[in-house]
Design brief:
2 copies of one chain form a homodimer. Chain A is an alpha/beta fold. The first copy, chain A, folds into 3 domains: about 375 residues, Rossmann fold (3-Layer(aba) Sandwich), CATH 3.40.50; about 200 residues, 3-Layer(aba) Sandwich (Rossmann fold), CATH 3.40.50.970; about 180 residues, Rossmann fold (3-Layer(aba) Sandwich). Chain A contains 25 helices and 22 strands. In chain A, the strands form 6 sheets. A 6-stranded parallel β-sheet of chain A has the order 12-9-13-14-16-15, with helices on both faces. In chain A, helix 17 packs across helix 18. The longest helix of chain A is centred in the first third of the chain and has 27 residues. Chains A, B: Keywords: Lyase, Thiamine pyrophosphate.
Chain lengths: ~800, ~800
């Protein structure tokens, strides 16, 4: 379908309008329509923002709009170079969405003045495609995740097309470089399509972009190797580029439609041109100048098409008359009088070519996923509970029990819940889910595979970046999920977690953004049980990263057993707009609490375990606190020893499930008041706290409490290797014997047997180590210990 | 050069020996040579480790050894699938290196017994290719970095060939996916070569590997697109695979030699087959079965060639006689009697085909880089000092001053110092280095580029993973460097930092591993000055991650001005085996200290600034502490206000450069004793601490101090956007006015004017905000404030 001249003119007018609005946002604080000659005081004192990528983003926008109208497409737009915020805002304003969401930024001269002034201005809007920007699910401040977000949005949205511009800078990042492989995980029947547009504008801030400098045959080869059918659109002549882009886009969207039709028709079995049954999805490589249509030269050096166009091509505009004149000339080159009427409203010819209502990419509900969110159908966790007649007498692998619960979640929610993980679902013992679903794999499948299928609820790829990026895209478009992963390697996505938490923090304060499902992490294969792998796999520090983000966003749970894990998971899957981190082991371990008690304990988040305590509910000599499954085990084993050696000692056992309870109530919504905290921990008795992670974290949470001076924390102190489970806790002084020694050292009233018992504990540690080193396994007396009361 | 039958036999024997030793390590704790029938008690009680990748690693090893001998190559071997530790250890033992480094693991039957027993055994060695493994610079526990390490090792080592096996699991990670592009940064004249061997054994723990399931044309296309000339070697018949691999390796090494010769000969200008002047480096794709030569089936299900071969193919060997028999059969299939003599020593035919001395990959000094380390020639930082007549009166951009110092470092060390960064060297104002060097770019260069050349000391790529990975490889092979990057995005490499810190922690305790240069981070474009980018770019939390690692490894510096930055940088570049983190701004800011004072202040790491204090050296009413450039500025501005309003107030100003000084002496080698700490901070006076990062970090460091109860910390509390510098500190209550209010709220003895002054401060905050929101820039009275005394 050839572009008619009239169409081309209207599209070019839109493009000029969007470019004008982008430049206006960066430079102007008054005189938005240039109704008078430009004067220094019309120009912002601080010139901030990124021009270089904006014309390319605008170019794509108007072409995608044409396609939406001609094909009635359901499409969203992910702008990888999200620092081109002016472009996203400009198009949303032209489409009318911006003024609907922010009525004071109306579609008239006054609104345009506010639109310009607010950009990157104190009290205004950020310079990036941020949560504040209608139509966005992707900020792009930290580059690398656009394509993963795009695929996440497309999964289980069979009628959605996600257009995704990938900048040539971002394309150098690792996460982006592997995101191209996402096609191996797209099911053309049940998923929507992603249309990647790799935008080669040649330069980053100061350097050429790598992919902009490889020969064309190599570039095509790369993307064919990634499994795409790439088409190159290249040029700096707008009219020719418009025609080429329109044709390329038509071809790509035809091909997407063909692939989906072929896959979805009854009896379909792959399509022509497939790679092992996998479609070759189209993609576009768009090569246009950086800062296209901006100043060609400034002060005698080239700007358009170079790295100098990255941010603000003309600097010191208030002070340099020549730059001021050049800015005015640049702005007028878009012929604003043809684009906006007297009142400052976009002229009818522009308004008419925009898609309408929810077809506008700036107003598409998929980009405000909370609008589409449906609560999960959740099974009653009690139906999966491990029966516990007496505290601590049952044994279970916590994540295996959770797996059965998740199996029922999957079965009840076949199209809006996914489990992501780097090849760990089975090894983390969630394998029951495979009774009702498969792992998604759109590549070649073989007889030796297990539970691989073109569609399924489990997505496994050895890239934490992809798992996280896909899940973020999936959640932000209104669905649910869980990311199960190795505890230590969650650090791989620290930066992605940060960005998602920042997105949620801002979103929560925008009433028009509806709440989305929480991002749920299940950290298993944790620090204390790395029998196969050792020191590199031992790092519980993700919790420290999480706690730096806003309290209103973050939740950390350390369920001590299978039943509490069920209760916590059920809670997390119902929550909205949080990041929930659950740490849980996969090894056989005691189940301490019957299900009803477990649910009550999790609801409180922290509590005294009276059944393990000996203080009769009042006036303990010592508090033994614990958080995490392994620390809880060692703590109760220590209590057992203490009860044997010091029968008169008044011990209180406090278990913490919800770590945020330790913070002051003023710091976190889950925080205990001082009175509540003191009632649990006392203000003057020694507290020996056995913690799953780095011990400082507990101090950081509790340093304001009255009893903090008496708080002594044991945790992981960065000692480890491939060794036995008990040797691991010994290496870090978290073992039961050491906890008893800690009590002895801190409780003055233990009486005469102290030295004798302390020596005995030290001897037992030595014996435990000697046994381990001789036999290669833990001594039965520690390995097989069970709570005997 | 065809492989003769005799050669093939000897190589196959080596391979069988290495495979035998790998299986022995995983399974056996006695009867290493199978001189008696295998009994349950010969088998380890806990079967741990990874068999699946080991035969492939061994296969490559023996082929690389042949090439080393026939070509007298200087070669090291990076094993991406580093969980195949048994393979690395097996070959080092066969080569004799293992017994040289660890004499108790001798090359005889007793040594072999110890070799087997120690593997993944309490008190023994880890299961991975760890620091303990001779010949390794890469652990590979956390996958993704092998190829970046390999290129880092090759830079500036023109005669070195780095063979790098990339596993098909690791190949799915983002960092690895972008590492292939490293060829665009290799200078064939001054750098060595990397020979990647992509090992497709088909499966990860449970899933097929993506690259193992793409059609062969697509696979070739992908690597041609990455810029390589790939050759595929494929098969499961050892004899044929040996011949094919030998031929492929010969071709690849011939091609490397040809590329280097062509580039290095006088008047060279590229070589045939180049892509834009860039050579097409060879690579090998090796496709062999996972767990090759292991059990084909176990309990009726296929194992060899499937995911079931990943870890321990035969489980429960002590308990299941059939598995025990199958293990014995498997071990005997390698015909150990032909491989080891009566004493357990490798037979002469094996010993003779190993390279000798430092040509052995297990003994190559490049893999123990400290052996080759040369101290840097460092300029005197005083020659770059900013002259300061009176404290705080000079102004400088700290990183610009550092840039001039680094220029001289570069000039004086033209072949063993590199600066890495994601396109930020100029924007971080280190641009003076370009007076003496260029950015490395081996792709096409154009006239609009600046400071791009085939060789240079600066490496910029928009991938923090590549920057960090390259630098790690460069440092571990005995060179020096600096990674300058955006503070917020250092989180992208949190996990890589963790792994490097873990590597150093273990290495420091291995006397045979010589100290290497520290990994130096320069975090600029920090949280407080993100004028162009806003909230996504505001995150000072990398420091929290760093502090979780061992105190003996980590150092954090927050120089308050240009002169202290010079002094700190000089110190860091001289240090060994640390990770040094330097946080420094790039904006114009006061220079507080003359150079001599700066040097003394940095040497102490913390100190009272008497010239700013009013307590006459004793008995302050309040301590104003600060760490970081912006907090120091706000603190001194607050001191100025306090001196105006409360002339009698006895103020002490403490500035912290070396954050570790705050920790107790028992916790960190730099930690102050309690007496020292109390002498600075007092035990009973309020301390208002203005901190660069998240405030909890200071509490975490100082919670044990006597005066902690009086410590009140201001820092970044996750509030921000694109706004003015002063608005940023106001958003986080770190501004001078708020610090004065904090003093007023905490010093009881201020007298009658308190309410009045407090109100005035609150008013000034409101006025500052109003000014900013109206004018888009900070009010001159805050922006232009200078220390007036």
């Amino acid at each position: 379908m050839q572009l008619t001249d009239a169409e081309l003119d209207r599209m070019d007018a839109w493009w000029r309008a969007a470019n004008y609005l982008a430049v206006g946002q960066i430079y102007l604080m008054a005189n938005p329509l240039l109704r008078e000659p430009l004067r220094p005081e019309h120009v912002k004192p601080r010139l901030l923002g990124h021009w270089g990528t904006s014309p390319g983003l605008n170019f794509c926008y108007v072409h995608l709009n044409r396609a939406i109208r001609t094909r009635d497409l359901d499409m969203i737009y992910i702008m990888g170079p999200g620092h081109g915020g002016p472009a996203a805002v400009a198009n949303a304003w032209l489409e009318g969405t911006y003024s609907e969401v922010y009525p004071h930024v109306s579609q008239d001269a006054g609104g345009m003045a506010r639109l310009f002034r607010q950009f990157s201005f104190p009290g205004g809007v950020p310079s990036h495609v941020a949560p504040e920007t209608p139509g966005s699910i992707h900020e792009g401040g930290e580059l690398g995740y656009s394509l993963a977000h795009a695929y996440g949005a497309a999964f289980d949205n069979p009628d959605l097309v996600v257009a995704c511009v990938v900048g040539d800078g971002e394309a150098e990042t690792g996460p982006l470089a592997t995101s191209w492989h996402s096609t191996k995980f797209v099911d053309p029947v049940h998923d929507g399509a992603v249309l990647p547009i790799l935008h080669l504008n040649g330069y980053k801030i100061a350097n050429p972009a790598v992919l902009a400098r490889v020969p064309e045959d190599e570039l095509l080869s790369l993307f064919e190797g990634y499994g795409y059918a790439p088409v190159i659109v290249s040029g700096d002549d707008p009219a020719k580029a418009h025609r080429d882009m329109a044709a390329a886009l038509d071809d790509a969207l035809d091909e997407i439609a063909r692939i989906q039709r072929a896959a979805r028709e009854p009896g379909a079995a792959g399509t022509a041109g497939d790679a092992g049954g996998r479609p070759r999805w189209p993609m576009i490589v768009l090569r246009t100048p950086k800062g296209w249509t901006g100043p060609k030269e400034v002060d005698g050096v080239p700007v358009e098409g170079t790295w100098r166009a990255h941010q603000v091509p003309l600097s010191g505009v208030r002070e340099k008359p020549r730059h001021l004149a050049q800015l005015e000339e640049w702005l007028r080159s878009y012929r604003p009088d043809e684009l906006f009427d007297r009142g400052g409203r976009p002229v009818a010819a522009l308004r008419e070519i925009a898609p309408v209502q929810e077809r506008r990419m700036s107003a598409n509900p998929h980009a405000n996923g909370g609008l589409l969110l449906r609560p999960l159908e959740l099974p009653d966790p009690r139906t999966h509970a491990v029966p516990v007649d007496k505290h601590g007498t049952a044994t279970a692998e916590a994540t295996r029990v959770l797996g059965e619960y998740l199996r029922d979640v999957v079965a009840a929610n076949p199209s809006d819940f996914r489990i992501m993980g780097p090849d760990e679902t089975a090894s983390n013992r969630l394998g029951a889910v495979f009774e009702v679903t498969d792992r998604v794999f759109a590549g070649e499948r073989r007889g030796t595979d297990e539970h691989q299928a073109a569609s399924g609820r489990v997505m496994e790829v050895l890239s934490e970046h992809l798992c996280q990026g896909w899940l973020e895209g999936y959640l932000l478009t209104g669905r649910h999920g869980l990311f199960n992963t190795y505890e230590a390697f969650t650090h791989i996505v620290d930066a992605m977690f940060n960005q998602h938490a920042k997105w949620l923090k801002v979103s929560r304060h925008l009433p028009w953004r509806r709440p989305v499902a929480s991002l749920n992490y299940l950290l298993s294969s944790h620090v204390w049980r790395q029998d196969h792998n050792g020191f590199t796999h031992q790092d519980p520090g993700f919790l420290d990263v999480v706690l730096n983000k806003k309290a209103e966003i973050t939740r950390v749970y350390l369920p001590p057993d299978a039943n509490t894990l069920l209760s916590v998971a059920d809670h997390c899957l119902r929550s909205r707009d949080y990041v929930n981190v659950i740490v849980a082991g996969k090894q056989p371990a005691p189940v301490w609490l019957p299900m009803d008690e477990a649910a009550r304990h999790c609801e409180r988040g922290i509590g005294i375990w009276e059944w393990a305590s000996t203080d009769g509910g009042a006036d303990p000599d010592v508090v033994l606190a614990c958080a995490g499954d392994v620390p809880t085990l060692e703590t109760l084993a220590a209590v057992d020893l203490l009860r044997q050696y010091f029968p008169a000692l008044r011990i209180r056992v406090v278990n913490v499930v919800d770590l945020m309870r330790l913070q002051p109530a003023g710091e976190h919504p889950h925080g205990l008041t001082d009175a509540e905290y003191d009632a649990l921990f006392t203000t003057d008795r020694p507290v020996i706290f056995a913690f799953h992670g780095y011990p400082y974290l507990i101090h950081r949470l509790a340093y304001r409490r009255a009893g903090h001076h008496h708080l002594h924390v044991r945790g992981y102190k960065e000692e480890g290797t491939t060794t036995t489970p008990f040797d691991m806790v010994m290496l870090n002084d978290l073992d039961r014997f050491h906890l008893v020694m800690d009590v002895i050292d801190r409780v003055p009233s233990l009486g005469g047997r102290v030295g004798h018992v302390r020596q005995r504990m030290a001897d037992q540690r030595l014996r435990a180590r000697a046994h381990t080193r001789e036999h290669g396994e833990d001594a039965p007396e520690v390995r097989d210990w069970r709570w005997p009361y």
